[in-house]
Specification:
Layout lengths: L8 E5 L18 H14 L4 E6 L28 E5 L10 H7 L4 E7 L1 H14 L3 E10 L3 E2 L5 E2 L1 H15 L2 E3 L1 H6 L2
Parallel strand pairs: 1-2, 1-4, 2-3, 4-5, 5-8
Antiparallel strand pairs: 6-7
Helix pairs in contact: 3-4
Protein name: Cysteine hydrolase family protein
Enzyme class: hydrolase
Organism: Pseudomonas pergaminensis
Length: 186
């Protein structure tokens, strides 16, 4: 785990109330929110930048459709008034959001990514961040996903989907560590 710069940014992705909807299915990492809160508290105590990313869906049947409670941040992970909030309409938090510009304007080069869904918005954002030249770290126990059925109809347990997504990221895009390892580097 590389030493974190004093301006390493914590990106908290899509931790909105809609993630608690039973219709999303069975998930892994039941303690992910606890790890996210530990990281958020450490970031705040060290005065490092925090970016809260919120998904605003274009699909009326989404848990993130505007104007419903699912769009709101989970209470334990609410942004403070001075923390940056990014709204996105696609999984990748860099697409059409101004996030890259915001980070560059503050000379931020290191990103620590947590949130949901591991194989969707977390992976898309981490891949783009890596491709754009940021030093990206994904915190494995501060992310989670859901069981997923593949195109052939096979159901994959969330644990397997999570592990494969993190393995894909670790090949070329991001470091993958635990919350304990990150907190040790602060």
């Amino acid at each position: 785990m590389p030493t974190l710069a004093s301006n390493a940014a914590l990106l908290i992705i899509d931790m909105q109330q809609g993630m608690n909807q039973p219709k999303l299915g069975r998930r892994n990492n039941p303690d992910a929110e606890v790890q996210m809160q530990r990281l958020l508290n450490a970031w705040r105590q060290s005065n490092r930048p925090v970016v809260h990313i919120r998904h605003i869906s274009r699909a009326p049947d989404s848990v993130f459709w505007p104007g419903q409670p699912g769009c709101e941040f989970q209470p334990a992970l609410q942004p403070l008034a001075h923390e940056h909030v990014v709204e996105k309409n696609v999984p990748d938090a860099f697409t059409a959001t101004g996030l890259e510009r915001w980070l560059h304007a503050r000379s931020i080069r290191q990103l620590v990514v947590v949130g949901v869904i591991t194989n969707n918005s977390v992976e898309a954002t981490a891949r783009s961040g890596g491709n754009l030249g940021f030093a990206v770290t994904v915190v494995s126990d501060a992310c989670y996903t859901f069981d997923q059925t593949d195109l052939s109809g096979r159901l994959w347990p969330a644990e397997d989907v999570h592990a494969m997504s993190l393995s894909n990221l670790a090949m070329d895009y991001a470091g993958v560590v635990t919350a304990h390892e990150i907190l040790g580097g602060l």
